[in-house]
């Protein structure tokens, strides 16, 4: 009788405690990760289709945890956002990406992902200004990537910050386009320089006509609004050929280059 429902409940509770404890441990580790230099940026090239040339790289955050090994940003960025740590981490990303990109041939650009939470304390524009000044990177060689979730609340203050950045010459990209609820309405609210079509449409386009039709429509729409359009997640020659037929201006994906350490970029560009 002791093995009844109560025992199971206790077991479940123990399991929950364990995952809460694990989360707390990860949070403590995340707090120390900056000071212990466990973060690194990798850079994934994007190609301009017209000239078939690499015109820039997207900075992607990597965390090498001392015991768990490399942890995906998809699992620690949300934790960093919930705990507010994203502020300091995001600032490190901006400064590091600008400093690295300043050493690349002109006019190679760097694209930096900015979390919606980074808009909240009102210091983002100052941080970008300072990162540019400190690194010497001209503003037009920096792209800021936001997802539409950044525009979900406090829309006006976010739009104002984006407008200030754009006035400085920084390019603004809408990331993961097509995956949110109101992507189209945001195109009307802000003149993005670039939209990045989420890889689900690129990868789906070979298998189903719906994805192919959406890809086509987004590319045409963006292009008629004068925006650059990146097709994300291109993994095969066949996908690249499909993209070439559309109004896409750029491609990014494993087919044209995987994210790489900063030290590998010189050789990659010379290849
Ligand atoms: P994202 O901004 O959409 O970045 C593209 C993700 O797709 C990267 O994953 C990249 O490695 C991956 N990818 C690129 N090409 C291909 C491909 O051909 N096939 C497939 N299957 N995947 C491809 P990663 O580096 O794991 O980053 C995941 C997400 O984490 C990013 O998605 C972004 O939302 C977030 N993230 C990464 N770095 C940062 C950062 O510094 N700050 C913030 N706030 N978020 C970041
Ligand atoms: Ca991105
Ligand atoms: Ca994306
Ligand atoms: Ca994404």
Describe the structure.
It comes from Aureimonas populi. By secondary structure, the chain is an alpha/beta fold. It has helices at 5-33, 73-83, 86-101, 124-135, 155-168, 183-189, 199-204, 209-224, 237-244, 265-270; strands at 39-48, 53-65, 69-71, 109-113, 142-146, 171-177, 194-197, 228-231, 250-252, 260-261. The protein has an eight-stranded mixed barrel with strand order 1-2-4-5-6-7-8-9. It is globular and about 50 Å long. It binds ligand C2E and calcium ion (3 copies). Residues 175-176, 196, 232 line the site of one calcium ion.
Q: Quick gist of this model?
A:
It comes from Aureimonas populi. The chain is built from 10 helices and 10 strands.
Features:
single chain, 271 residues, alpha/beta, 8-stranded mixed beta barrel, globular, binds ligand C2E, binds calcium ion, EAL domain-containing protein
**Helicity, as a percent range:** 40-55%
Shape type:
globular
Please give the number of β-strands: 10
Low-confidence stretches: none
In sequence order, what are the helices and strands, one letter per element?
HEEEHHEHEHEHEHHEHEEH
Small-molecule components bound? ligand C2E, calcium ion
**Biggest β-sheet: strands ordered side by side in the sheet:** 1-2-4-5-6-7-8-9
Total DSSP helices: 10
Residue-averaged pLDDT: 93
Strand content: 15-25%
Euclidean distance between termini CA atoms: 71 Å
Instruction: Report the C-alpha radius of gyration, rounded.
Output: 21 Å
Protein name: EAL domain-containing protein
């Amino acid at each position: 009788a002791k093995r009844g429902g109560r025992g199971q409940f206790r077991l479940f509770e123990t399991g929950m405690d364990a995952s809460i404890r694990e989360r707390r441990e990860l949070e403590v580790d995340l707090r120390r990760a900056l000071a212990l230099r466990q973060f690194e940026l990798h850079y994934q090239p994007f190609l301009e289709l017209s000239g078939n040339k690499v015109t820039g790289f997207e900075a992607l955050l990597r965390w090498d945890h001392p015991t768990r090994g490399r942890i995906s940003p998809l699992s620690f960025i949300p934790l960093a956002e919930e705990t507010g740590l994203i502020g300091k981490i995001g600032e490190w990303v901006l400064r590091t990406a600008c400093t690295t990109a300043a050493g690349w041939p002109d006019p190679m650009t760097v694209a930096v992902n900015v979390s919606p939470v980074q808009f909240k304390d009102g210091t983002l524009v100052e941080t970008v200004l300072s990162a540019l000044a400190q690194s010497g990177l001209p503003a037009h060689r920096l792209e800021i990537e936001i997802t539409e979730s950044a525009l979900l609340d406090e829309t006006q203050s976010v739009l104002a910050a984006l407008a200030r950045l754009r006035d400085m010459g920084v390019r603004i990209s809408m990331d993961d386009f097509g995956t949110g609820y109101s992507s189209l309405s945001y195109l009307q609210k802000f003149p993005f320089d670039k939209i990045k079509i989420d890889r689900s449409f690129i990868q789906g386009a070979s298998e189903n006509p719906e994805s192919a039709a959406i890809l086509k429509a987004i590319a045409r729409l963006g292009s008629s609004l004068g925006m650059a359009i990146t097709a994300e997640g291109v993994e095969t020659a066949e996908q690249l050929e499909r993209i070439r037929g559309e109004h896409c201006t750029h491609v990014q994906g494993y087919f044209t280059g995987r994210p790489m350490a900063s030290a590998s970029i010189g050789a990659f560009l010379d290849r």
